[in-house]
User: What shape does this take?
Amino acid sequence: MKRIRGKRFMIVAGVAILLLVLQTLPVFFAAPIGSRQMSGEVVRMHYQEADAQGAREVFDLLERECASLRASMKAADTGLTDVYIYHTQRQLAIREAGFITVAIAPKWHIGDSHNGNVMLVSPYTPVSVHTHETIMQAALHEYVHALVHQVNPGLSYFWDNGLATYLAGQKPDEAEFLQIRAPTMADMHTENGLKFGNMGGYAFSYKYIEYLDKTYGWDKVLDYASGKGSYETVFGKSEKTLYDDWCLSINELRS
Assistant: This one.
């Protein structure tokens, strides 16, 4: 009986491992099936023929803006950045974390960056909450993520996205922003992408970086983002005091 149970356990475990491998296999093959390439000074683009026009537009945008973004982040030239363009959100989701991602990916999700690359749907992909313009901006956003990975891969999710939205020029609508409850400090420490998006994290992280830039200057922002010091050594204040000051500035806008 024990031998039969052991055999059944091995079969179940084997099937589970096989399913896990199959579910995550697409993650190791970021390029779309049958993809083509175009390379420039800073970008190596991977795309399918059906997305050639969108890929070319993203390619031209990144080639034009990458030098400025690298300068802003003081990131070294480390060669070509791989950019993957997908025809659908489903293709993107599967390449990010496997087939299961399709079931949980939010409708607004159009891009990501893994270990210094850029993953993005085509600007011509129909997305209910995005336009051609916002997807193009997202290309810059994801490229900044790639630079952050180079400069300080351990930077928090909130800071990482704040830099990306700020440098990509994804300024939130002021009226809508002021209607949302400000995140708590605990919220700002979340590493959960869904929670971050649902709490208005993109808008608030933009406004946080904007506040620090206007109050302390970009060099200070970059020093902290690069891991050159703590809140106290870089900004001369604790994180809590800085957070309270920021919330006060938001409340003043609401009054």
About this structure: The beta strands are 36-39, 43-47, 81-86, 111-112, 118-121. Residues 2-24 form the longest helix (23 residues). The chain has 13 helices and five strands. The CA atoms of residues 84 and 119 lie 5 Å apart.
